[in-house]
Design goal:
645 residues; alpha/beta; five-stranded antiparallel beta sheet; 22 helices
Length: 645
């Protein structure tokens, strides 16, 4: 078996080697036609600047499925560049994958112990909301500001041997991540710490100290520069030896990013084992800017918005327009700058991937902190990014991309936590929302009416609803018809007292675990983890709003003023009962009597009701839709209703 595996790795290496030194004339011509004299100088001196670039066009079909066309400039897997912090990206993916295998939530406190020379013990994290370290908070810090300590903790959690076994098995045989970002020798880096996951003072999982026994191929010497400063800050007139350092080919890094942003675009064996909630979480923090984070929080004079956004923005501390998001990972060290990125323009509906690396070190001395990052490096990324972006703006596509998945993932970043109960009242559009927990009797009828009238709707369903086998046909139908499917809690808990709203009936951990159950149930249907969450009983308080926001989610609720939410009542409820005629009249009356009518309205109904209600309001859905369409209202999903684009 070992011989077969070794032969497989050898074959992969041979295939990779056959594609060395690749340059596509199209990309070279595009760059040179628009290049400034400084950029032309860089491109005309490949031995000095060691530029590598990959530009990827993305074309969508009528079903919004992406196809990728890669263009290369001087890309060479054998041309070494120090990957620096870009290696943090695959570790973030692997850490989430490992948690999923263990059945542990990413927010569960992770305590790192010390069990070998030079190891660090970490039992607290003042940057997190609860003061405790977790994989989730480490990943946030990795993408927000490229935090080194966070990377070290994930390296220890995964383990050096597992890192490589997982990456090599996915077809990345040249990936080598053998160092923490702290002073340690080779032996110390092979040893990783004992780790405990704790919850409410109880041990959830204990991982013993580990040591990697892998043997790496260090036969190819990797020497850079003409000199370097040693650990005593003395000049050594010899190249710096990177033979035993981390290594990450640019094409591998971009393919890993593509495999997470567009998992269906790569073979299954190249995908990381992530949940839909993991994907939503990663998209959010790959794109988030330092000022948009509260926990962890950052001094934005040091960590400015474009701090980790090299292409187009970091040069001159450029401002990033609110309609553009960059999902990326950068790295900078020893004169090497690298960025692996996906750019999405929500206003102009353009998207592309671009990855690049450059070496800026005029004096040829490494480790002296004298590199031309500001003078040549960041301006290079700005100009190349602008050339590609401007080309993308005018490039004709067979179909405009629907970027809603990414737009929703970053919705609400930087805003104060709040519950949203209505959209833009200046637009004549509204969202039809259905909630569900125990009953689904109206599901198929509702789906038929919506399809006939071409109305998109939003369905907020509990974990119990998603788990009920009898409801699966309804869920699959709604998914197939393109409706928005989201969360309504795991078990339909009552979060706070009906009489004393400030009095919580659940702990924060109970809230988080219950909501996680809801998302796991959605994941089994392949439903993307929705950003918008509608609380059970439509009842919540400020604590629930803040807890929801801390998970990167947005709490929404129905717009008050009509009796639509009473469609679940039945006669035995006495004075609380509302028949269908009364409910419909309340909607039409509100629409007629208010200046803004139902503009921006979130109109909530139920997908099913107790059998004791004979007068099912969903049988009035056709009449309601016709009435509102007759009033020129456009029906949209919750993400579209609340979109700022």
């Amino acid at each position: 078996m070992h011989r077969i595996y070794a032969a497989f790795l050898c074959l992969l290496c041979c295939v990779t080697a056959a594609a060395q030194q690749r340059t596509d004339k199209f990309l070279e011509k595009l760059l040179l036609e628009h290049a400034s004299p400084q950029l032309k100088h860089i491109l005309q001196h490949p031995d000095s600047f060691q530029v590598q670039l990959i530009y990827t066009q993305i074309n969508r079909d009528a079903q919004n499925r992406p196809a990728f066309k890669h263009y290369y400039y001087q890309v060479d897997n054998k041309k070494y560049f120090n990957p620096a912090s870009t290696v943090k990206m695959p570790l973030a993916f692997l850490a989430l994958e490992k948690l999923n295998g263990l059945g542990i939530d990413k927010y569960t406190p992770m305590l790192t112990d010390s069990g070998y020379a030079a190891q660090t013990r970490v039992w607290a994290d003042t940057s997190s909301a609860n003061g405790l370290p977790s994989v989730a908070n480490y990943i946030k810090k990795i993408f927000l500001v490229s935090d080194n300590d966070a990377y070290n903790r994930l390296y220890e959690f995964i383990g050096q041997q597992t890192i490589h076994e997982k990456l090599w098995a996915r077809g990345y045989p040249e990936m080598r991540i053998v160092r923490r970002f702290v002073a340690m020798n080779e032996d110390q880096n092979r040893h990783t710490n004992p780790i405990r996951f704790m919850q409410d003072g109880k041990l959830v999982y204990s991982q013993p100290a580990a040591v990697s026994t892998l043997q790496f191929d260090y036969s190819r010497a990797l020497l850079v520069g003409r000199g370097h400063m040693d650990k005593d800050e003395q000049l050594v007139n010899a190249p710096m030896d990177f033979t035993r350092h981390n290594n990450a080919p640019l094409a591998d890094l971009q393919q890993m990013l593509q495999s997470v942003l567009f998992p269906e675009s790569v073979p299954e064996n190249k995908r990381f084992r992530l949940t839909n909630d993991d994907y939503r979480f990663l998209y959010r923090y790959m794109a988030a800017l330092p000022h948009e984070s509260r926990k962890p929080g950052y001094d934005t004079t040091e960590f400015f918005d474009s701090y980790t956004k090299f292409f187009r923005f970091k040069g001159g501390r450029g401002k990033i327009p609110p309609y553009i998001r960059v999902f990326n990972k950068t790295g900078w060290s020893y004169g090497f700058l690298t960025d692996v990125a996906y750019h999405a323009d929500f206003r102009n509906r353009t998207e592309f991937m671009i990855s690049g690396s450059i070496y800026v070190n005029r004096d040829g001395v490494l480790n002296d902190n004298k590199y031309e990052y500001e003078e040549e490096g960041y301006p290079f990324f700005k100009e190349v990014g602008d050339i590609i972006y401007n080309y993308e703006l005018q490039r004709k596509r067979p179909h405009a991309p629907d970027l809603g998945l990414f737009e929703e993932a970053v919705a609400g970043l930087g805003e104060a936590p709040k519950a949203i109960t209505r959209g833009d009242t200046t637009k004549k559009q509204l969202a039809l929302v259905f909630t569900g927990h125990e009953f689904a009797d109206g599901g198929m009828y509702i789906a038929e009416v919506l399809k006939k009238h071409r109305v998109p709707a939003s369905f907020f369903l509990t974990g119990t609803f998603y788990e009920t086998p009898a409801f699966a046909p309804v869920i699959n139908r709604l998914k197939r018809d393109g409706h928005y499917l989201a969360a309504h809690s795991g078990r339909h808990l009552l979060y706070c007292d009906w009489g004393k709203r400030d009095s919580l009936l659940v702990t924060r951990r109970q809230f988080e675990e219950d909501l996680a159950l809801n998302y796991r149930a959605m994941d089994r249907f392949g439903i993307p983890a929705a950003h918008y969450f509608l609380p059970p009983y439509e009842w919540y308080n400020d604590s629930i709003v803040h807890w929801t926001a801390s998970l990167g989610l947005q709490l929404v609720n129905f717009s008050p003023g009509t009796r639509s939410t009473a469609d679940y009542t039945y006669p035995e409820m006495g004075k609380n009962y509302r028949d269908s005629e009364n409910i419909l009249e309340s909607v039409t009356a509100f629409e007629n009597q208010r200046p803004a009518g139902l503009n921006g309205y979130i109109l909530l109904l139920h997908i099913g009701t107790d059998p004791r209600r004979i007068d099912k309001f969903y049988f009035q859905l056709r009449k309601l839709i016709r009435y509102l369409q007759g009033k020129d209202y456009a029906f949209v999903t919750i993400p579209r209703l609340l979109s700022k684009q």
